Amino acid sequence: MSHSNSTNKHLESGGFVCVRRWMCVGWGAGVGAMSGGSVAIPDDQAFASFKAECLCEEGWNVTYNKSGTTVWIQSLDEERSLHKIKCRMVCNDVSAETMYDVLHDTEYRRKWDSSVIETFDIGRLTVNTDVGYYSWKCPKPLRNRDVVTLRSWLPIGKDYIIMNYSVKHSKYPPKKDMVRAISVQTGYMIQHQGPNHCVLTYLAQVDPRGSLPKWVVNKSSLFLAPKAMKKINKACLKYSEWKQRHNKAYKPWLFPEQTTLPIIPLCELSVQRADSLENIDESCLAETGERERDSD
Predict the structure, then answer these.
(1) Taking a C-beta distance cutoff of 8 angstroms, is the pair 161, 129 a contact?
(2) Where is the START domain (predicted)?
């Protein structure tokens, strides 16, 4: 059975997109290369491959392990600070269903994610694939980043996978005041562990574009990644109460008939390649003493 058919059955029976810090987007060989570099909707094999990498620890270096949260780094190109980052958080007070809702709910993200500048959905390709825009604040003195991605999600039993990769859309070109980042494969895996217990894994092959100073990579793995996971957990705890007051029945990621997004023909999209974008050299920038975004 194709992933779209199996997803439809999950969605119709009641059976989701980008952590949006600068560290959330990636590059490398990923989903977008499945069909010779043309835009393709992820299939079962792509989801299975993503799950396997989320579960694999071989070849990864642990940089943080505390209070149920573990962060791994896998270096790809030290000179350009190219790397993969993987975060895993054990949540003993959040269900997989709530985690899934929180990661999908764009309106709620604007409330809890202080790094977001702008986020919106552009259109849909299928009931479980859409295209969206996201821009976010980077640690100073780096320039802020943005990204346009194709996002696809798949319920697997009581677990969930959400993946995205960068695409180009003619109506959303790079902005002069932003650095257009690249996501070749970024996503979440949510594992059901009980009625109020789940494990969240976040995986990104990261290219925020340009040459970054090493303190950025170190800060992402030692501080920003664990902090971002903690913020997601806190957001989950407050979601039910918030949702009751904000269009509580509206969940198009569960009920696709609710969506009002226009359909985008696949031919309007192309894979966003890193070599077609401006290369930004920020490798000599020093970390500022600013800490307001680092506090809870």
Answers:
(1) no
(2) 57-241
- In tens, the pLDDT along 208-232 reads 555 555 555 555 556 678 888 999 9
Lowest-confidence segment of 37-51, 199-213, 276-290 by average pLDDT:
276-290
**23, 80, 238, 257, 272 from 115: Cα distances, Å:** 11, 24, 18, 31, 23
Query: How far apart, in whole angstroms, are the C-alpha atoms of residue 245 and residue 201?
Result: 29
Are the C-beta atoms of residues 244 and 144 closer than 8 Å to each other? no
Distance CA 72, CA 225 (A): 10
Task: Report how far apart, in Å, the C-alpha atoms of 150 and of each of 38, 92, 125, 181, 199 are.
Answer: 12, 31, 9, 14, 24
Q: Which residues contact 87 (CB under 8 A, 6 or more apart)?
A: 69, 70, 71, 72, 201, 202, 225, 226, 228, 229
Complete DSSP assignment for 134-161? EEEPPSTTSPPEEEEEEEEEEEETTEEE
Query: Which tokens go with 203?
Result: 């995986």
DSSP-derived pairing of the beta strands 82-91 and 116-126 = unpaired
3-class secondary structure, 53:
helix
Q: Are 23 and 225 in contact (CB under 8 A)?
A: yes
* Whole-number Å distance between alpha carbons of 161 and 229: 16
H helices within 3-43, ranges in order? 3-12
**If we measure between CA atoms, which residue out of 81, 61, 58, 56 comes closest to residue 71?**
61
Retrieve residue 217's tokens.
């990579």
Element (H, E) at 72: strand 69-77
- Write down the pTM of the prediction: 0.80
**Confidence tier at 141 by pLDDT (50, 70, 90):** confident
| Residue 14 in tokens | 């009641």
Nearest to 82 by CA among 228, 244, 212: 212
